[in-house]
Amino acid sequence: MKNGQNTRFAFLGYMLLFTLGFEVGGYQAVLLEISQEFAMTGTQMGILASVQSAATILSTLLFGGLTDRMSKKKAVSLFGCLLIAGCILAALSGSALMIGASIFVLGLGFSMVEGTTPAALSETDPEKSTLFSNMGQTFFSMGAVLSPLILQALMGAGMNWRGHFWISTALAALVVSLFYMTRQTLHPGVTEAKERECGGIRSVLCGAFFLVAGAMLLYVAVESGQLYFTKPYFIEELHDSGNAALSISLIWAAMIPSRLLASRVQKRKGIFVCICFAVAALACFLTAAVRVPGLALVWSALFGLAAGPIFPTAVSVCIDTFPGHTGRVSNLMLTAAGIGGVGANVAMGALGDAFGLGNAYYMVALLSAAGVVVFAWGYKKAKARQKKYRESM
Known about the structure:
The chain is built from 15 helices and no strands.
């Protein structure tokens, strides 16, 4: 019975991440239409794209520790309601200011749901942290793949971009309700870890955390540069509007098999993630250097294949390293991610206005290459801390 309950709980956790992927993939697909309706420049569009990341920074800093002091299921459900409220406000937006404010509210809930759900699932079986993180992000990718394709069909039939937020509202309301009503059984080791590791945020602020979080800052900067600007890149640089929405779905689709593979990786996570960073850097470089419409889709797929496992595997490393602070470290990883997203989106918009979006992709290639070094160093320190924790038991 307990295994059945936890299986249902895990599936609904995955569906929550599917919902988040559906929302963000659709937002990336309609961002250009939003900017056109409100007559935004490339820089202003970049600022709008960064609003959700800014909300992530604030939300995870303010509330990340709260998730270790209350039921993670209740925390996910509470912030899921905030996500729903943001979607409703976005659907009702009639000005650039209102859409910006609604995306900020949406982002406050989005980030906490994304950060806390893997930690909630890991409490049912800590040894499956890699499986839960990567399977959750696989479902996230599925949602992000489907959303642009569905929207392309619906908007081709006359639906306004606001329809995306109404669909996201209905989906989120259904899944959050089911998740809240499903029971979970905590693993006995979870309570023991909480008792052994007490203290506030200072208890996780060490070299291992800062370096892994720094690598995730770089990764999300790269991912944001790719996903939020691939559609304008295809339209403005390649003059290939027919494949613009497809490029977003292709990136997310390519993440699915690599995340499924990563869900089985329990050892050598450091080497695995470093290889992913290196291949992602190559894909970004080719996007900037070889601007051919057909090949650009290949570069998109290559990027998605390489980038997919990076974030969820890094989150699982932090969960393994700080077993008594899983909620806090999961959400602090999103704080770092938010900083990377804000910086990259603003920089991509500004560089695109100044030098063209094609040249802006050289920046994200460089950031991805830097991620190899930073993550390798952080993983080495994380393994040392894990060994020290095991020896103290």
